Amino acid sequence: MSLFLIVALPFLGALLPGLFIRAGRQACYIATVSVTATAFLGLMLHLPAVLRGEVLTARLDWLPALGLNVNLFLDPLGFMFAALILGIGLLIVTYARWYLSRDDNMGEFYTYLLLFQGAMVGIVLSDNILMLLVFWELTSLSSFLLIGFWKHLPDGRQGARMALTVTGGGGLALIGGMLILGQIAGSYDLTTILQNREIIQASPLYVPALLLILLGCFTKSAQFPFHFWLPHAMSAPTPVSAYLHSATMVKAGLFLMARLWPVLSGTEVWVTLVCSVGLITMMLGAFIAFFKDDLKALLAFSTVSHLGLICFLLGTGTTFGAMAAVFHILNHASFKAALFMVAGIVDHGVHTRDMRKLGGLRHAMPITFVLATLAGLSMAGIPLLNGFVSKEMMLEEATYTTLFGNPLLVTVVATLGALFSAAYSFRLIGHTFLGAERHDYPAHPHDPKPGLWLPPALLMVPVVALGLFPFLAEPFVRLVTQAVVGDVAPMPDQYLALWHGLTPALAMSGIAVVGGAIWLALFNLLARVWHAIPRPEAKAMFDATIAGLARGASRVGDGLHDGNFSRYAAIFVVTVVAVGAHAWFTGDFAGASRQMLPVTFVAVVLWGLLIAATASLVALHRNRLMVLIVMGLIGLIVSFGFNYFSAPDLALTQITVEVVTIILLLLALNFLPRTTPVESGSGRRLRDGIIAIAGGVAVTGLVWTILMSDFPMTSISAYQLANSYYGGGGTNVVNVILVDFRGYDTFGEIIVLGIAALVIFALTETLLGGPVRARLLNRKIAAVRAGDPHPMMMVVLTRVTMPVIVVAGIYIFLRGHNEPGGGFVAGLVVSIAVVMQYMASGITWAEKRQRFPYHGIIGAGVLIAGITGMGAFLAGFPFLTSSFGYFRLPPLQEFELATAIGFDLGVFLAVLGAVMLSLESFARLGRRSETEDPDDAMGIDPSRILTDGKG
Amino acid sequence: MEFLVATAIGALTAVGIYLTLRQRTFPVVIGISLLTYAVNVFLFTSGRLLPDAPAVLRDGVDVYADPLPQALVLTAIVISFAMTAVVVIMSLGSFLSNGEDRVDAAADTPPPVRKPSEERS
């Protein structure tokens, strides 16, 4: 099966449970388990090739220039992890089928589980580290959903949040580290990076990259001091704990450390950091686990401890350490997943996981007892079980390792870790199953259905088999170890065996087991001491940190963004000017390298007018009507300017937009106060003035610099000028760019335009539907109004000119491809003609004669543009490719038809509809506020004169 | 000529910023419109100033005004109209709901009793 399919199957399969749950829980289970089983089977088909030593790849380039691809590769390390993820996944899916109660939404649970499964498989098979990061984040997200699956439990929600915060934060660090690593190696492909050990370790960026990557790995794999999230994630349903927190997610960090082992390991920083963090975590986790009364909490801290153990083994940087790590990853996954499931079974049967309320369960739950004993003793490191073999390898490795110049330190800490580990394992078995049978269980204990005990029982097969015959795993473990270490160092000559002779490791093992038993015998005393000593509470510290961060963030946020627009506008301007000034003073603008154009008289006059008009706004801006007049003047001069500098299309557009904008602002001013009161004091005005002048000077300098220096690169317009006529069939290059070269942009823009108009419509509707309406109806018109709302001369004039303007609009539209004009301008011109009818004859009159709603016109425009664009598909061209031809239709002259005209028609309609819908919405606010319009548009309503005149 | 254009854009920007920093919605809208002019003209000038060039392709002419910034600015002008309209309806809605047109009016402020003097103004 293709590697792509193996990764994609769980993601695609995640769609199934939600559908199949309607057919019942069994159907939902079968759908889910088939997905996982298919992926597992597909993976197993590759086993022979992997055993032959082949590395399978699947490559798919996306943006090769940026190093973005979707490459997967399957080597023994990836295979081992993928097999763990999918294999244990099968057991977990089955276990969950019987574990989840009828109140739980099984479809939702399986969906999350499959998402998580896909993300995990993605991590272990990715060749591209950027893609690996994406999958990495996906595991954080999907585990968040899984941990918080019981949404009604506050513990579940808080635990999920904590897990997401810690692993997500580590994920951010990891992104940084991986990007640095990719930069050093010059490639984002793992297979390439792994070849570049020397370059990477010699780079000055090696240490930052290493620290960031390790931060990601340590948070994910719950290493000290980030271990605290894992116990809090135990409020998840037990299948989740068994899956995520024993076999898969927490191993992702270890996987990455193993994956990058050839390039990162072996340096002093690596050995010191990874070894000590691993050792501390191992000992601390084991120590705390012993005192936990909750079965799952004990297992959580035990997991922390075992992860620390593996971390330490990887940290030693020796190939024997790597081999022990690989073997222990396998062993830990098998016994720990089983133990979590056992904890779930006990919880299920007795309705408590508190060991103080348990004990003597061996009679009532014999099957569970056997499973727990096997797995627990394996965890304790008792011979004939697989945990013993790898733990002894760890102890042996510890004797070789020297940290901080002290050869005994590691040995002692490792032995202590093993001792505590044996102690809590014994306690788990002893305090749950041994001892006197009790009669005060919260529920009647019993062995569960096979669906619950079979999955852990299956896991006991490797626990016992590899414990008795470790050499069975040897070829595979060696293969994986080879994949971990690459060609950095020769393979170790040690072999996996039960009996290595009388070694120091055996003595340490003995000390640990006997010491563990004694430690347990002292439990009552130790527990009293433990509970008496105050100790830091991770959750309280975490909550305080988060609360502090949130407070700090909102203080900064509220300071910068206090809801007053002018405040953040000012901050924005000052920041931009400061950054620009920095660029200016540190840049190397050599001065003008181009000649200035000669100044003409007209230009000076227009410039003077513009400056005067603009400056006068500062003085006049309190008189709002005056402001609009000056704005019209400025718009006019800008249009002149466009025309002067050979851009007639822009001039046409600017001047028509100017008309509708002024109408719009006049409509708005109808409701707003006519003047702006003086509010800010002179100090504030001075400050704003300084900011404004600084901004103006900066922009002047920027424009001057751009205009007076040569382009650093050539403009792409040459291409458009050259191809406009022959490729696009038009001589008006601006229009050809709009409808052809950059048609996609234009298509997006008319959609934005339509959305903006709909937003205005929706806001108007909301306003008119709320309390504002009553206020509008009760509004007293203060200003003296014209006695005649619809003067006859204006009515006649607008009606007579309407056809003329529309014809002009059509003309501008049709000639757009070859002469200045086009859909945008034509749409604006025609909308002016229509608006004039509203103004002259009233909204009621105009609405009665309106055939099509403006929403429809916008929609039709977008649709026509889109369909025209898609027409290119018929000819086998990409979207919006236009074609054109010349036709002769007697008695007319030869004329050109281009498909672009269809697109331009869409633009025309969208512009017309959007402008009209906006203006009409404003006008409707006005209509509701006034008394009814007279029926006869041309009629004069004398009553208004009388009432208004008095008012 | 370049100097005139640069200072004109600078003046538009300066007054635009000043009005944007006012406390009432209407000057802010006007300020944003002025900034829109400034930005549009700025974009246009990035294609160089070229008076008296033919508007459309002609035989035998090699020098044209850069059409690309023109196309960009053309749509920008139309879109900025739509955006102005959205800002105006928002400020209008705020004014009609709150009874005042300050830019920092809280959404849940009850409308104050209007004084007759404000009506007239």
Describe it for me?
The complex is a heterodimer of chains A (951) and B (121). Among the domains of chain A are: 292-521, no CATH class; 525-560; 730-951, no CATH class. In chain A, 72% of the residues lie in helices and 2% in strands. Chain A contains 41 helices and 6 strands. In chain A, strand 5 (884-888) and strand 6 form a beta hairpin. The relative contact order of chain A is 0.05. Chain B has one domain (2-49, 65-109): Orthogonal Bundle (Helix Hairpins). Chain B is 64% helix and 0% strand. Chain B has helices at residues 2-20, 25-45, 67-98, 116-120. At the A-B interface, helix 27, helix 28, helix 29, helix 30 and helix 31 of A face helix 1, helix 2, helix 3 and helix 4 of B.
Q: Structural class of chain A, please?
A: mainly alpha
Low-confidence stretches of chain A: 934-951
Shape of chain B: elongated
Radius of gyration of chain A: 38 Å
Uncertain regions spanning at least 5 consecutive residues of chain B: 108-121
Task: Please state roughly what percent of the residues of chain B sit in beta strands, choosing from under 5%, 5-15%, 15-25%, 25-35%, 35-45% or over 45%.
Answer: under 5%
The string of secondary-structure elements of chain B, in order, is HHHH
CATH C-level class of chain B: Mainly Alpha
Give the fraction of residues assigned to helices of chain B.
Answer: 55-70%
Q: Based on helices, strands and strand pairing, what is the structural class of chain B?
A: mainly alpha
Strand order of the largest sheet of chain A: 1-4
Number of discrete helical segments of chain A: 41
Largest sheet of chain A: 2 strands, antiparallel
Distance between the termini of chain A: 85 Å
Q: How many separate structural domains of chain B?
A: 1
Most extensive interface: pair and counts? A-B, 120 and 90 residues
* Beta-strand content bin of chain A: under 5%
